[in-house]
Amino acid sequence: MRVMNMKKDLISLFKEYGDKQELLSKISESEELRAYNNSELHIIAAIGDLENPNVTAIAQHMGMTKGGISKNVKKLISARLVEAYQEDNNNRKIFYRLTNDGKRIYDKHAVAHKNWIERDNGFISRFPEEKINTVAEFLEKYIEHLDAEIEKRI
Predict the structure, then answer these.
(1) pTM tops 0.85
(2) How far is CA 55 from CA 50, 147, 148, in A?
(3) What is the rounded CA–CA span in Å between residue 148 and residue 130?
(4) CA-CA distance, 34 to 147, in Å (whole number)?
(5) 67-99, pLDDT tens digit by residue?
(6) What is the three-class DSSP state of 63?
(7) Are 32 and 116 in contact (CB under 8 A)?
(8) 68 CB neighbour count, 10 Å cutoff
(9) Residue 119: in which H helix or E strand, if any?
(10) DSSP 8-state secondary structure symbol assigned to residue 51
(11) pLDDT, tens digit, for every residue of 10-67?
């Protein structure tokens, strides 16, 4: 186990964790999924999961800015994975749905996500429940802190 200057090294460990998860995803996922970044894949997932997804609903679901969602959705429309539509009774709001290609990416991403959870559950299950609860509590508080920092900036 590493000897740590706790506050400094904890942040470094989070960065290392994120980097390794990203690398593992890239080498584990199908070549087709590697063509899209994390935000794009999660927007595809949100469009597939949400009822009547529009920029606002997707942004709220993902905790991203509406500008970030709009920028990524434009890329997904250009890639013919997503298409925009309007409902007959509401011509002001623009909604999104997956094309057949988008549904294929959605399904492949769901399988990759399921495999990732199964892989990591095997590791996590080796620890006693109280340690898992402590880490989960810490991460929930840290996420709340990051959410508050995000809110200050948008």
Answers:
(1) no
(2) 11, 19, 21
(3) 27
(4) 28
(5) 999 999 999 999 999 999 998 777 788 999 999
(6) coil
(7) no
(8) 16
(9) helix 100-124
(10) S
(11) 888 888 888 888 888 778 777 888 888 889 999 999 999 999 999 999 999 998 889 9
CB 29 within 8 A of CB 44: no
What lies within 8 Å, CB to CB, of 117 at 6+ separation is none
| Residues 53 and 47: beta-carbon distance below 8 Å | yes
Q: Which residues of 86-111 are buried (b: 16+ CB within 10 A; e: fewer)?
A: eeeeeeeeebbebeeebeebbebbee
Residues in the chain: 154
d(CA 131, CA 97): 41
Give the angle 109-87-40 at the CA atoms, nearest 5°.
25
Report residue 24 CA to chain centroid gap.
15
Q: How many CB atoms lie within 10 A of CB 77?
A: 15
